[in-house]
Design brief:
This protein has 247 residues and is mainly beta. It has no helices and 17 strands.
Length: 247
C-alpha cells in the first residue's frame, strides 16, 4: 500500500469571474456629426484583468430595446468618438442610447445603464437680454430675452437667468426655467436702489447648456417724479431767473 504514481495530466483553474457592471458612459462633446464618449474603468475586474470594453448603441428609436455592437470601437481606450460621417447608422438630429460592457479572460460583464445623447451641436448662446424699464421699479428689474436658435432638429428645453451685482464679482442663478421653453421673461425683485446689476441668459437642450449670452447692465431706479411748474423769480436786462421744486 502507498501513494500511486502521479498522473501525467494537470489542470489549471483560475479563481475569477466576469468584471463588475461598468458605470454609465458620459459624453464630453457633441457636434452635428460626432459624439465623444467617455468610459470609466470598472471598479472590480473579477480577478482577471480587463482585456477590452465593448460599446453598444440602439438605432435611435426610443420604442425599441435593440442595442447592437459599435464596431468602430475596439480595445480598452477610455474615450471614443462616434462619427456619423463614416458610421452611417448614426444620423444627425436623432437621439441615441449607449451602453458599455467590460471583458476579461472569463467573459463579458453585464451591460451598463444607458446614456442618452443626441447627435447634434449644443445649442448656441442666446442673444443679449433686455431690461424692460417700463416694467421695472426702484427695487426690481424686469428682464426679457428672445427665443434661442435650436441646434438642428433638437428643440430648446428652457432657459436660465443669472445676475451679477456689480462690484461683487459673484454670479447667481435667479431663474431656472430649464424645462420651460415658453417662458422668456422674469421679474427680479428685492434689488438695492441705486445699485448696478448685470444679467445674462443660457439656453438648454437635450445635450446640455449653452455658453452664456452677452450681459445687459442697468441701475435700479425709477423715472423722476413730477417736476413743478417753473416760477418767475426776477429778470435783468440780459437774463431771466426762474425756479422750480425738485421731484
Amino acid at each position: 500500500m502507498g501513494e500511486s504514481v502521479k498522473s501525467p495530466y494537470s489542470i489549471s483553474i483560475r479563481a475569477a469571474k466576469v468584471p463588475s457592471r461598468p458605470e454609465p458612459l458620459k459624453f464630453s462633446a457633441t457636434t452635428s456629426t460626432t459624439i465623444t464618449l467617455v468610459l470609466t474603468p470598472v471598479k472590480q475586474n473579477g480577478g482577471s484583468a480587463v482585456s477590452a470594453y465593448k460599446l453598444y448603441a440602439d438605432d435611435g428609436d426610443d420604442t425599441q430595446e435593440n442595442f447592437t455592437h459599435v464596431t468602430s470601437y475596439v480595445g480598452n481606450a477610455l474615450q471614443h468618438t462616434i462619427n456619423g460621417a463614416t458610421e452611417t447608422r448614426f444620423v444627425t438630429g436623432k437621439t441615441y442610447r449607449f451602453k458599455v460592457t467590460a471583458t476579461n479572460a472569463i467573459g463579458e460583464s453585464e451591460q451598463s445603464n444607458q446614456l442618452r445623447v443626441a447627435l447634434a451641436k449644443i445649442v448656441a448662446a442666446p442673444q443679449k437680454p433686455v431690461i424692460d424699464k417700463n416694467l421695472s421699479t426702484r427695487t426690481s428689474h424686469f428682464i426679457t430675452w428672445q427665443e434661442g436658435t435650436p441646434a438642428g432638429d433638437i428643440p430648446i428645453l428652457g432657459y436660465k437667468l443669472f445676475m451679477i451685482e456689480k462690484g461683487s464679482g459673484k454670479s447667481s442663478l435667479v431663474y431656472d426655467g430649464s424645462l420651460s421653453s415658453s417662458t422668456k421673461s422674469y421679474n427680479v425683485k428685492g434689488l438695492k436702489t441705486g445699485k448696478y446689476y448685470a444679467f445674462y441668459v443660457t439656453a438648454r437642450d437635450f445635450n446640455g447648456e449653452s455658453q452664456p449670452s452677452e450681459e445687459v447692465v442697468g441701475v435700479v431706479c425709477e423715472k423722476p417724479g413730477h417736476i413743478s411748474r417753473p416760477a418767475f423769480v426776477k429778470a435783468q436786462k440780459t437774463s431771466i431767473e426762474v425756479a422750480w421744486t425738485a421731484p
